Amino acid sequence: MVVGAVLLLASVLLSVLLGLHRYGMPELWQAYRHFDGSNDHLILTTTRVPRALVALATGACLAVAGAIMQVVTKNPLASPSVLGINSGASLFVVVGLIAFGSSLTLGGMIWIAFAGAIAAAAFVYAIGARERGGFEPVRLTLAGAAIAAFASSVTSGLMLLHKQSLESALFWMIGSVADRKLEHLADVVPYMLAGLALAMLLSGSLNVMALGDDNAKSLGQRLLLSRAAAAVAVVLLAGSSVAIAGPIAFVGLVVPHLCRALVGNDHRWLLPYCAITGAILLVAADLASRFVLMPKEVPVGVATALIGVPFLIRVARRRKHE
After folding, report:
1. CB atoms within 10 A of CB 67
2. Domain 56-321 maps to which CATH number in 2.40.50.1020, 1.10.3470.10, 3.40.605.10, 1.10.260.40?
3. What is the pLDDT of residues 144-201, one digit of tens each?
4. pTM above threshold 0.85
5. How far, rounded to the nearest angstrom, does the alpha carbon of residue 37 sit from its chain's CA centroid?
6. Helical H runs in 34-84?
């Protein structure tokens, strides 16, 4: 944990200092200690620092949400996108842009995306619920895939019909932490912190759920309550992350598997490790995305996909052989 914290601090500092314009620690110190309104100070305080903090918070939340989803759905390939959260948020943003046009600010887009993420998760859990209470993991996964496919299809259709008004949504829909401000992060931080706190409180219950439904019931686990609380945690974590950074894929898939290789399946340790590792991964991916096509930048969602797709294939093949 200490090594992870040091690596996270180092990655954040590198993200702030490196890029098209490079700075040193003295310039960063002066930007906050003796701000003079220069272009360099503005880049550091209004662009680089908020961007690094958004990547840190988003990566931590997506990774923890993915770890919870893999337990609840009993699917090692599960991630927040399984619930259709990414697709629901994207659909709501596109509808908002059609309705409000250029008057829709980034702050307003964040709240519309949050509403879309919540609505998608609510639909998935309503469909995945069993008749006598509780949730069936297979049905939940299939419901999430269906809602995601439906929302993506509608989004694509709307974008074809309204190309001119939706160009501003393309960069957000790929997944990006650029051009976010501290005010935007402050809007969703309470939901992120609430989701992380709830996830940590559920760590013991997640350990019991991982043993299977029959064993969990014999140990006195209240599955309906535990799964409902887990659903709330996922919605808070993934919904707030998608709202501020767009649908960034594969962080919630890759990080839990990496952390299980380090600390095993005890969620009391796994979730904190996921939070730190997810933050490091997304901050590092955002930093790397600046150098791929310099002076242009690649959205961080593309960088995480380049990492996540080979990992997804590896996990799927390993499960097949097992």
Report:
1. 29
2. 1.10.3470.10
3. 888 888 988 888 888 877 765 566 667 667 788 888 889 889 989 999 999 999 999 9
4. yes
5. 33
6. 39-43, 49-72
Size of the chain in residues: 322
Buried b / exposed e along 283-309 (16+ C-beta atoms within 10 A): bbbbbebbeeeeeebbbbbbbbbebbe
What are the beta bridge partners of residue 296?
Answer: 293
Q: Report the pLDDT value the prediction gives residue 196, as an integer from 0 to 100.
A: 96
- Give the residue among 55, 66, 63 at the shortest CA–CA distance from 8: 55
Domain limits of the chain? 56-321
CB atoms within 10 A of CB 79: 28
pLDDT in the model for residue 303: 81
Structure tokens belonging to residue 96: 């908002």
Max intra-chain CA distance, the chain = 65
Report d(CA 208, CA 125) in Å as an integer. Answer: 21
Confidence category of residue 57, pLDDT binned at 50, 70, 90: very high
Residue 205 has which token pair?
């219950």
